[in-house]
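Hey team,

Filing this mostly as a record. A colleague (T.K.) asked me to run one chain through the structure pipeline before their review meeting, and I want the input and output archived in the tracker in case anyone asks later how it was produced. No errors, nothing strange. Just documentation.

Input sequence:
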Amino acid sequence: MADNITDDHRSHSYDAILIVSFGGPEGPNDVMPFLDNVLAGLKVPTPVKKQIAKRYANFGGVSPINGETRAFISALETELRERGITLPIYWGNRNWHPLLSDTFKNMETDRVHRAIVHVTSMFSSYSGCRKYREDLYAATANLENATIVDKLRLGFNHPNFIAAVMDRTKSALNELPTGRRDNATLLFTAHSLPQTMADNSDYVAQLREACSLVVEGLGQTQWDLVYQSNNASYGNSWLEPDIGNALLQLGEDGVEDIVIVPIGFVCDHMEVVFDLDIEAREIAEKAGVNMVRAATVGSHPAYISMVCELIEERLYPDRDRLSLGGLGPSHDVCPPNCCLSGRPGKQKPALCGADGT
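Output structure:
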């Protein structure tokens, strides 16, 4: 992208769609190799890895993320066909099979020249955007005829993403007694980040925008944005408030019902089913509050429609770029300083950027 544009409305001929996700183990024997991939380059002692692995043991060594991704792809294929789009869908993960590097080799063999990429992350940050783009670069670097990829824009404020989160939240609210729903507190959760990483992206602003849109649509008045899954391995401050502290404080304040809305995650994985369904629930019980967890958007029809509409934006550049709120539609092509890690040293090369890489 030598012209340094951040919106790409030119017509391209696409051969495929590529879904890129985090990946997760699908059995006990997968857990440690999976963690080796996740923690590659970090000085994490083996005993610490084994402690992390115990979380997966609660679920038979299986993270739900791969199953959720398969269901998402199946639903996406169905709606795309209904819209007359017959592009094949490939799937590659950052950390477990099908690995992104293997998927690109398959695409090269299949002579896929150019593909639309959907990364299963709705908000901009190093972890949710640039790291994936770095992995796209690494997966294609040694291929003679690597597929050219164009990444879909972020959908955090797309009307259909907001509709999907609203519907999941409404279903959770409906689990409460009728007379207590209006007074329930919504706790929107997202993965905590080191403050230096958050400062290099619009992560917090986008999350607050999305939360506000959901609250406005539902007519709820009591809500907050909190953070979870603080890994605290960077040696500096992380985004707060922490969900555990927030639950304890709400208990002290006499709040009776809390609905946790994992808006920062598009599908269930370990940081949802363990950190929320087990750890946060234990804290809620200690705090004396009734906790209900809203489902992630997963394969919700509105979320599937959103991805289809973003794909159509790439296929048909005259399509309207839908968004709600004040931040407007996100860029198609990432600027050079997009979602920096906040760590010292030279950044790794990344695809789908306006700096030509």
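Quick notes for T.K.: The mean pLDDT is 94. Residues 16-155+300-315 form a domain with the Rossmann fold fold (CATH 3.40.50.1400).
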